[in-house]
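User: Could you go from structure to sequence for me? I need the amino acid at each position, not a summary. Structure tokens:
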């Protein structure tokens, strides 16, 4: 399915913020910083070549407590921009020499994402031609199956015992069938006419639900582990040349004609695209427009622990530094330069501070945005304004059981107040508190919904207070449950 969002080059910073506003409440500074960074990616592409390489990306550091929208901004950004994008947590990495992922792997993962993305785009471009070829393949297959069935009936009475034995053993060649029944001009004309009829039926969808046997080519993953400095994902072996270890396998599947049409379309589209061109464009996109969202960066800030065999957090930062500064990473598709990849780092910084990061890394994250904690009014807007608001989600879920749920304005106010109060008295987990409060509120109704089919349930402030009264009164209980 095509993305309905306009391409990023046609989005102004104001429009980018408007797109993010559909799903994220508040945090205008963070949205503006991201929007400017995205627009600068496009502006840089319009510069003369000699100046283009001099303009370095202004990497961003988002600072704010958990649940205020840092990850959600990144997630929605991934859906919005048509550029290679990956979100990865800094805690996945360890200092070189320890068990864990090396920092280069995030660039390799980004390249893999770019290759899949470009491949899908190229396949979409040739889809119409690929569909025509798929229709032709299906028509030929249906025609051959009809002719084979007819010929077997005709030949069953005239075959010699030897011919019958060869057919049973599967040694009779299709060409022999052609020799036994020579194709006359009339037969060829009938074949063309029948093929046109089958093509019309396939295009119109008349035979979509019929079952058909097709041969599917499947790529078998290799089961060989090779340990190297680049990691297992960088095995440069062509496994198709080693049948015992992997390669392509053909299997027969019984599917509907509609499914077969899609499978054949994908196969034909892959044959039509230039794989080397896909790889070249993917690397170019990663180098010029790639975005890496590095979450939980505060977990690798601060001094090394003096207790136990702790992996040096400063060591991980120093491993990250050359990637963010700009270096060349070896991938299975070729070398990739990281000079112009945009890095967006984020962290709560409850215990550590941004200043605890090594100075060199701080210097590579020049744009700092502090996200604001959420209050009762923010919670109220989160419950009602976004297109994916929790209240709307629960209404749609209950509608599947035939139950109409109505949230009154005072109920929304009460839910927001309780969520804010629990956050204040216990751990502040931001908007994620709304998920726990709403699930607790809707627990009984969700359980009993099948018994209330066709009914309307009105959730008002009294209903909210009744369901959540014990949680709000008992701090210890709220810590345990919420």
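Assistant: Here is the amino acid at each position, in order:
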């Amino acid at each position: 399915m095509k993305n309905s969002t306009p391409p990023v080059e046609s989005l102004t910073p104001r429009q980018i913020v408007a797109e993010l506003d559909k799903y994220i409440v508040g945090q205008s500074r963070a949205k503006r910083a991201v929007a400017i960074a995205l627009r600068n990616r496009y502006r840089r592409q319009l510069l003369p070549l000699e100046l283009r390489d001099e303009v370095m990306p202004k990497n961003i550091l988002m600072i704010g407590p958990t649940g205020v929208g840092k990850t959600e901004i990144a997630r929605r950004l991934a859906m919005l921009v048509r550029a290679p994008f990956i979100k990865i947590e800094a805690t996945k990495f360890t200092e070189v020499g320890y068990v864990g992922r090396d920092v280069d792997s995030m660039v390799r993962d980004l390249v893999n994402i770019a290759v899949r993305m470009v491949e899908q785009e190229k396949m979409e471009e040739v889809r119409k031609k690929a569909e025509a070829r798929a229709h032709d393949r299906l028509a030929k297959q249906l025609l051959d199956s009809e002719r084979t069935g007819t010929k077997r009936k005709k030949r069953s009475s005239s075959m010699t015992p030897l011919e019958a034995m060869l057919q049973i053993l599967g040694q009779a060649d299709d060409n022999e069938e052609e020799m036994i029944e020579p194709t006359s001009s009339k037969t060829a004309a009938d074949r063309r006419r029948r093929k046109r009829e089958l093509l019309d039926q396939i295009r119109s969808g008349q035979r979509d639900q019929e079952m058909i046997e097709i041969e599917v080519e499947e790529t078998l993953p290799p089961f060989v582990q090779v340990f190297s400095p680049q990691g297992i994902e960088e095995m440069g072996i062509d496994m198709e040349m080693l049948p015992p270890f992997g390669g392509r396998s053909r299997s027969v599947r019984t599917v509907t004609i509609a499914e077969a049409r899609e499978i054949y379309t994908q196969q034909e589209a892959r044959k039509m695209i230039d794989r080397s061109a896909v790889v070249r464009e993917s690397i170019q996109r990663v180098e010029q427009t790639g975005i890496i969202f590095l979450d939980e960066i505060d977990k690798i800030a601060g001094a090394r622990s003096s207790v136990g065999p702790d992996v040096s957090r400063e060591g991980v930062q120093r491993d990250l530094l050359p990637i963010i500064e700009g270096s060349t990473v070896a991938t299975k598709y070729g070398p990739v330069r990281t000079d112009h990849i945009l890095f967006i780092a984020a962290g709560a910084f409850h215990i550590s501070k941004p200043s605890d990061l090594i100075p060199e890394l701080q210097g590579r994250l020049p744009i700092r945005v502090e996200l604001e904690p959420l209050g009762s009014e923010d919670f109220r807007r989160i419950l009602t304004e976004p297109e994916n608001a929790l209240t709307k989600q629960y209404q749609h879920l209950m509608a599947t059981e035939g139950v109409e749920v109505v949230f009154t304005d005072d109920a929304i106010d009460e839910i927001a107040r309780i969520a804010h109060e629990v956050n204040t008295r216990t751990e502040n987990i931001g908007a994620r508190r709304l998920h726990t409060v709403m699930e607790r509120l809707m627990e009984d109704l969700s359980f009993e919904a099948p018994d209330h089919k066709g009914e309307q349930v009105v959730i008002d402030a009294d209903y909210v207070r009744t369901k959540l009264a014990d949680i709000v009164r008992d701090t210890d209980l709220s810590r345990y449950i919420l």
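One structural detail worth keeping in mind: The chain is about 50% helix and 10% strand.
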